[in-house]
Amino acid sequence: MTPVSDVPLPAFEPPYYAAIFTTVRTQDQDGYAETNARMEELVRDVPGYLGMDHAQNPGGLGITVGYFRDAEALKQWRTNAEHRAAQQRGRDDWYDSYTLHIAKVERSHGFKRA
């Protein structure tokens, strides 16, 4: 699995899209780590994929934000057959609940202490 960074991704030049995936997972996570690593590998091959941020609190709430240059890149990821199979496995086994929000980012900036 890709190590989770303690630093957010830099701001990108708008417009672009953000897919915000918020989850609460089940106790049974058999196969999750391997599938998650594969999805992180697979999404990198989508033209227009910009990166992702991820956070998980001790109580189990997880938030992953994937950034995509345009709606076509997001559609390519959404319709990828291997990703679709992983989504179904998530509904069947790994998630108690989730929400997905798709947003068009019109403004973006960042700050980093020197």
Automatic annotation (TrEMBL):
ABM domain boundaries: 16-88
InterPro entries from the UniProt entry: ABM_dom, Dimeric_a/b-barrel, Jasmonate_Hydroxylase-like
Keyword Methyltransferase appears in the UniProt entry: no
Keywords carried by this UniProt record: Monooxygenase, Oxidoreductase
Organism field: Lentzea albida
Highest taxon listed in the record's lineage: Bacteria
UniProt name for this protein: Heme-degrading monooxygenase HmoA
Molecular function per GO: monooxygenase activity
